[in-house]
Amino acid sequence: MPQATELLDLAFTVNGEPVQLAVSPFSSLLDVLRENLELTGAKRGCGEGECGACSVLLNGKVVNSCLVLAAECAGADVLTIEGLTRAERLHPLQEAFVQHGAVQCGYCTPGMVMAAYGLLLENPSPSEAEVCRALEGNLCRCTGYRKIIDAVLAATNGGPPHD
Amino acid sequence: MLKTVPKTYQSPRTVEEAVQAVSQTGAAILAGGTDLMPRWSRNLSPRPAALVDLKRIEQLRGVKLVDGVVRIGACTLMSELEADPLIRAAAPILAQAASRVACPQIRNRATLGGNLCNASPAADTAVPLLILDATLEVASPRSDGVAMREIPVAEFFHGPGRTALQPGEVLTSIRFNPLASGTFSAWDKFGTRPAMEIAVVSVGVVLALARGEVTQARVAYGSVAPVPLRGRKAETVLLGQPMRGEIIDRCVAAARDEISPISDVRASQDYRREIVAVMLRRMLENAASH
Question: Range of A68's domain?
Answer without folding.
Answer: 4-81
